[in-house]
Design a protein that fits this description.
The complex is a heterodimer of chains A (about 475) and B (about 525).
Chain A (H helix, E strand, L loop, with lengths): L3 H7 L1 H16 L9 H23 L2 E3 L4 E3 L1 H28 L4 H19 L3 H19 L6 H32 L4 H11 L3 H17 L9 H7 L2 H26 L4 H24 L4 H22 L2 H29 L14 H4 L1 H15 L5 H15 L3 H27 L13 H19 L2 H14 L1
Antiparallel strand pairs in A: 1-2
Helix pairs in contact in A: 2-3, 2-5, 3-4, 3-5, 4-5, 4-11, 4-14, 4-19, 4-20, 5-6, 5-11, 6-7, 6-11, 7-9, 7-10, 8-11, 9-11, 10-11, 10-13, 11-13, 11-14, 12-13, 12-18, 13-14, 13-17, 13-18, 14-16, 14-17, 14-19, 14-20, 16-18, 16-19, 17-19
Chain B lengths: L6 H18 L5 H25 L8 E9 L4 E7 L1 H20 L8 H20 L3 H10 L1 H11 L4 H32 L7 H9 L7 H18 L8 H8 L2 H26 L1 H27 L4 H20 L4 H32 L10 H4 L1 H14 L6 H16 L1 H26 L16 H19 L1 H19 L2 H9 L4 H19 L2
Antiparallel strand pairs in B: 1-2
Helix pairs in contact in B: 1-2, 1-4, 2-3, 2-4, 3-4, 3-11, 3-14, 4-5, 4-6, 4-11, 5-7, 6-7, 7-9, 7-10, 9-11, 10-11, 10-13, 11-12, 11-13, 11-14, 12-13, 12-18, 13-14, 13-17, 13-18, 14-16, 14-17, 14-19, 14-20, 16-18, 16-19, 17-18, 17-19, 20-22
Amino acid sequence: MFPPLQDLYRIAPELVLCAFGMLVMLIDPFVPATRKRSMGWLAFAGTLVALASLRWAALNQGSAYSGLFRVDMFSLFVHAIVIGVSALAILGSFDYLDRENIQRGEYYALILFATAGMGILAGSTELITAFVGLEMSSISTYILVGFRRTVLKSNESSLKYFLLGSFATAFFLYGIALTYGATRSTRFDVVNQAIAAHGAGPLLILGLGLIFVGLGFKVVAAPFQIYTPDVYEGAPTPVTAILACGPKAAAFAVMLRIFYSAFGSASHVWFWAIWVSAILTMCIGNFAALVQTNVKRLLAYSSIAHAGYILVAFAAASEIGVAAVLFYLAAYAAMTLGAFLIVAHVGGTNEQRLNIEDYAGLGTKHPWIAACFALFLFSLLGLPATGGFLGKLYAFQSALDQRIVWLVVIAAVNSVIGAYYYLKVVVAMYFHESNKEWAPMPMRAPMFVVLLLTAIATIYFGVLPNRLMELAIASARSLR
Amino acid sequence: MADHNYLLTVITFFPLMGTFTLLLLSGDDHVWIRRFTLFASVIEFIMSLFLLRGFSLADGGYQFEEFYAWIPSLHIHYHMGVDGISLFLILLTTFLTPLAILCSWNSIHEHVKEFFAMLLVLEMGMVGVFCALDLFLFFVFWEVMLIPMYFLIGIWGHGRKVYAALKFILYTMLGSILMLVGILWLFHLSGVAGNPTFDLPTIVSMLHNGQISLPWHSEILLFLAFILAFAIKVPVFPLHTWLPDAHTEAPTAGSVILAGVLLKMGTYGMLRFCLPLFPEASHRAAPMIAVLAIIGIIYAALVAMVQTNLKRLVAYTSVSHLGFVVLGIFVFNPTAMEGAIYQMLNHGVSTGMLFLVCGMIYDRRHTYEFSELGGLAKSMPVLCAFFLFACLSSLALPLLNGFIGEFMILIGTFEHHEAWAIWAATGAILSAVYLLWAYQRTALEKITVAKNENLPDATPRERLILITASVVIVFMGVASPLFTHRMDATTHALLQQVGNPASYTARHVAPQAAQPMQHDLALRSVTLERRAQP
């Protein structure tokens, strides 16, 4: 047996995040209301330390706590994504919280706790641990979504998210129970052995189905995506940015682990479910986005569509497929985070500028913001030389490699449909003249850094993706 | 493979460097922005002329090749190279860009810096498309090029510019995304064969020596995926509806580039990808495509005739003339194919010049409607003389460039399919009708609108543009061997790869006999070659 100390090293990122989260909560009461921003910096420092501690965890790879948790390349990769997303989102929240008058310490603490939950989710190799991670990230995000307490919409979306989310987690729990009933274990490797030995009985398939419901809700796969636009619209925009990237990445990670490691030998059972869900997700996301007039809602639907593209790679059920999912998640996180933070920035006080026509003339009045937004939109659209394109290409390639041709064709056609609504925003920014006065939008250093980093990442992943791809492949290899 | 020759990389990315430098200039300094862009594009043209010097006539393969690993995990390479087909298309691109810049000298007033930056980015994309020999690299350039064009139409266009820009980009994307699936499928097949690659020459040779076995139904699907993208770009008859809108609403420089270069990418793609990758499917689809091309020639000519808008008329002539090119490609005859390549260049220069003249008229009258024009020759004799010259070149008057191309295509077609040649030839007659009639309605007739009486004639800048284009038109009309000789080797190599339709029919009937057929195929191509060379 390993000494427990080494197990602690393995969950170092989570420990750091939780410690900083509690530190923020403890210090917060003693900080005067005008200086709450310092709590944000503290939380940001926490994410940086957590990122650094990944290195520590990386030196101690292996299973921890008798197979409940595992540090491997795969979990490190996903950790890097979720912690990076939170770090950047914290930086991007400063101005927003000031404008909305909700600059509070607990906001940052909750982000840290949620991130820790996502980290646990990414590293878990056992169903109950996964459940703990899921709950930890979910409950924190329920509160974050409703953080604009005086705004009706925010309350509405928080309640919706909470009710439906709890419902979904209940399904997940039920699925765990059934799986346990069928295999007498909740550990992925034992479940896998049991399936290999006895095959997948109806109880197990039902259990897997229920687990898919719970996780499908988190990754916004159809038909469990209904809540997305409402919740994304009502939540404070930086929180939406986190929701669209972090929990999605973590949930996809645990889904990969469950489906590939635990239920890998039953892939014929879940393949068609994923196949159908991928098509539904892409089509619903893209077609619904076509008619949106609110940019935030539009991006919410776009995030549904992107979950569909990721599911295409997921359906490949191969090593390249896993690598494609991971690469996509990283590229997607960069561009989506950037896009939502620009929406937060342009939105202004009380998020008053959210409609597409409000973006008219942005190209002339604020050329750099518009250029960044255009870059993110083109990347979401899947234009070459951006991360989004490489992600899509890799996903399609992994699926074609397994001869899943029609799914890829449908995905390809979908991405053209998607082009229409992304371009609609670009049209507004560049081709239409503004009929309203543009108030100056001073950009402070943190926001600037975030946009710069996400934009550079988006181009870097598109032009020189090899490093990231190799990492993704190495991570995929470590999954088995 | 790479003999440390960086010329193609330099030519491709020099405009991008120009763009970055341009962004450093102050946005209000319009004079220097224009001068700098012109300077950069002229340097680019001069550099591209070095390609001519180093180009070997005898080599039918790729020259100036560059080959580096780009994304090793996906087996993507940076592979550039030119042959007799792409050589002149690159020159055409670098030649038309300075003209496009010159013609927008005074007609662009808003966002001047961005406009010229877009033109340079566009140039990079176009040259890249013609150089790329890796399917992935090609696709990147192919798609990247759409964005500057989209902005050129959408921001600096006129009329229903947003609609036209959106239609242009969505149409093209629909085609190209299916091509992407096709590319990925080819990649998958090469992986199954044990050598995963996106490299075009490698895939072509793997297909030809049987390492990749392509069942008939997947070959036809793949062929469709590629041809659809190219047919939209050309555009071939039922897919042409984006073109009149895009051309008409685009600013002059945009129309020149669009007609001059972008449309050629479709026909270039057919030559570069469809024929060598899917020879059998190409042969089988040839009658259908040729018939569509002929319908396009005649239909577009008839539609052009009844246009009331000068620029729209010129736009329809493109559909008609590109029909000839497509026809020339799909009769698989060396004469016709060379004619098709030559006609691509001719059309670029002639239609480019027509659009330039249109733009100059628009700068003065701010309309393209025939009802507003008429009698312009009285006030602008010089401009109208050049207009007539461009019309004559476009309608294929002997001694001018258009004649050579159309003649070669028709001769080549006639050897195999008399009926096709006869039907296509009616298009040549119709082109005389609509172009001369357009000239008559614009330059001759009585002046009906008072504004037309006192219009300034061509300025020195405009004369420079028009004289340059005219010189090239005459030169190409009288010195065509200088061009076609450089295409010979490539055309023959290509036709040898594609083979003869008869051998495919035989192969299909008796698949066991495929091996000896390969011999037969080569032999037939050789005889074809002999016949072509008197």
